[in-house]
Amino acid sequence: MEDLDERKRLAKRREEIAEKNRELYREFLLSMDEERKKALELMRRRHAYYTKLITDAEIKTAQDFFDRYREHFLMYGIDLSISDDKSYCSIYLELGDYDYENYGVMDGKNGNLAEISPYVSFKELFNNVEVNIFTEEEV
Questions:
Q1: What is the pLDDT of residues 21-62, one digit of tens each?
Q2: Rounded CA gap, 115 and 112, in Å?
């Protein structure tokens, strides 16, 4: 009879521990979700800023963006690089704690202004991810 009581006590204790861990995990996930929302909002603001730079200067190609802003961005520690075919310019921000964000400037289509891609690569909780910052879908 003692064995049965001991097994019941242990089973109850295991369930209590499991429930406590589920609660802690829920809080962690909610915290991560909140952090991602804040990060995506900041990325959207940066996207809007880069778009404004393009609009204000009437930039039509990634090469034009690179030529015009390379030195300006360099002054703030932001790396601009241009693809081999000159149709894509990367805006690479190195943030604290080894975090980063990477935006892309693409040539305008049919003579229109250049565009900033909605897809941003960044590091989130030790993982490199790429997300559409407007739909929040991972690629």
A1: 888 788 877 888 888 899 999 999 999 999 999 999 999 999
A2: 9
Closest CA to 102 of 77, 85, 123: 123
Structure tokens at 56: 């204000």
- Write down the residue that tokens 């015009």 correspond to: 68
Q: What is the pLDDT of residue 1?
A: 63
Paired tokens of 13: 């204790």
Structure-token match 């295991």, residue found: 14
Q: Which two tokens stand for residue 26?
A: 């829920």
H helices within 58-95, ranges in order?
Answer: 62-75
Q: Element (H or E) spanning 55, and its range?
A: helix 2-57
